[in-house]
Amino acid sequence: MMAIKWLTFCFALILLFLASYIKNSQAKVDSASNSWTTARRDSAGMSPDPVKMKHDAIIQIYAAPTYGWRGLVAVHPWIIFKRAGEAQFTRYEVVGWLGPNFVRRDYAVPDGYWFGKQPERFVDIRGSQAEGLIPKIEAAIKAYPYSNTYKAWPGPNSNTFMAHIGREVPGLKLDLPANAIGKDYRGLADPIGLSPSGRGVQLSVLGILGFTLGMEEGGEINLLGLNFGVDIKQPALRLPFIGRLGFDNSSVDEMQLQESSSKPVRPG
After folding, report:
1. Which UniProt keywords apply (predicted)?
2. Is 267 within the bounds of a domain?
């Protein structure tokens, strides 16, 4: 009984904190609001120059707050990649207003602002490892089962798409944040399976109720699409609206980056 009281108290405390966070953040959103037609969509300067890095295979995954007030509670992710020898990136994502096939290729610039919101990089893999993963990513994109279905909540949506790629390509070690609403969406006929990173297990009923235990995710509980958990690998709290509160968890191989940046660029 005492344990239940403590859990209830902690849950209420978290909700109060999140309510305060939303209230303060909403003021910032309102003061900086722009029409979606004029919001920034140009490069954020976060991806490498594909021409200078022509001889390197590269995979990166980004996510940015969604447009408007929804950006306080959810993110929009996308993946970019290029093979060795290619001088431009290919970008894939799910865009909810562009059906009937919601999977879009090269909808925007590789590392662009998402309607005024700066993206965050979650995965950066280069070299031979990236080259080996790209065919698996392309196969996962083709096999996405909800390309003609979109629901902002609880899914399937853009985060469901990225979680599908993560499950199919565990080498990405993808860890979507707790506020990637839709990442836990699973059909009624498939409630148990791999976690979105492909490196754990998950039980989820339509992304509304369930739990996840994984190498990248740590432990996470999903209640009505709101995720609460603890990341052990990179110590942090996993919270709705915020994503994570703790150490950075971007999957970037610093050794690969150093090796790639130190390579002389051969003339094309």
Report:
1. Signal
2. no
